[in-house]
Amino acid sequence: AIPVYRAEALKTPDDYEPLRELFDSCLDALEPEPALQMIDLLNSREISAPPGLTVSYLNEQHARFLLIKRDIERLSQLGQAPVGRKGSPPIAGTSHIPYQKALIQAYRQTDNSDALIRLLSHLRNRGEISQKELLLGVSVLHENGSYDTAREWLDDIPLDHTDSEIERKVMAALLELEKASATPDKEELIRLARHSLEGSNSDFAATVATVLAGAGHTGDAVGILRLLQRNIPNAGMRTQIANQIIQLQLQAGTGVGDL
């Protein structure tokens, strides 16, 4: 199918459909070269672009096929943000962004964590990093043992209940940092637990309580569980929490008669 669509795209340059079919076929077959050759022809204006073909679409396709080819050198070149003359206002171009996104994926696929962190740090310093990319950086930093830096990156993402999926990941990452610490921060754990209660994330609150108890703060853990118990309408779950409270108190040395 690829040679057919390529021939058709060259034969009818005013028709957008054969070009789209060529790109789709190359993607399905994981064969980047025919697509890259066609993109080079379009970018060099050796053939005219069909009506409806946007620069942003072409850049996205170009970045995608360079990623499949694992052409990290070319992605690095094209992923450079445009720079104006010294003293001039910054250039607000976005043509480099698809290549940066593809480069992030390339570094992930090749397990090049050092290059990945350098790129993500560059994006963060420029204020061009997304929250998902911040979380990716946090994961890599955590794996490398750079806990303080990981926490700094997490501080860039506000916990304001605007995106529940992102917040759950941020809170889980913050909890993992506390668990990795020799001396978990009690106040930070309590903050996470209270925030999870505000967001009705009962399972996470119970997990934080367990970490608090493991760090020697049984009283605070029990307090969190009692708050959780009051907020849960399900009688069976309330009983489970009550049993967890009793277990924590027994583990802390509270006598059965004092419960």
Folded structure, characterized:
By secondary structure, the chain is mostly helical. The protein has helices spanning 2-11, 16-29, 32-43, 55-69, 72-78, 97-109, 113-125, 131-143, 147-154, 164-180, 186-198, 202-214, 218-231, 235-251. The N and C termini lie far apart (74 Å).
Describe how the helices and strands are arranged.
Layout: H1 2-11, H2 16-29, H3 32-43, H4 55-69, H5 72-78, H6 97-109, H7 113-125, H8 131-143, H9 147-154, H10 164-180, H11 186-198, H12 202-214, H13 218-231, H14 235-251
Helix pairs in contact: 1-2, 2-3, 3-4, 4-6, 5-6, 6-7, 7-8, 8-9, 8-10, 9-10, 10-11, 11-12, 11-13, 12-13, 13-14
The proportion of residues in beta strands is under 5%
* Helical fraction: 55-70%
Poorly predicted parts: none
Structure class: mainly alpha
Mean of residue pLDDT?
Answer: 89
State the end-to-end CA separation.
74 Å
Count of helices?
Answer: 14
Q: What does the largest sheet look like?
A: none
Shape: elongated
- The topology string of helices and strands comes to HHHHHHHHHHHHHH
Total strand segments: 0
In short:
The protein has 259 residues and is mainly alpha-helical. The chain is built from 14 helices and no strands.
List keywords for this structure.
259 residues, mainly alpha, 0% strand, elongated, 14 helices, 69% helix
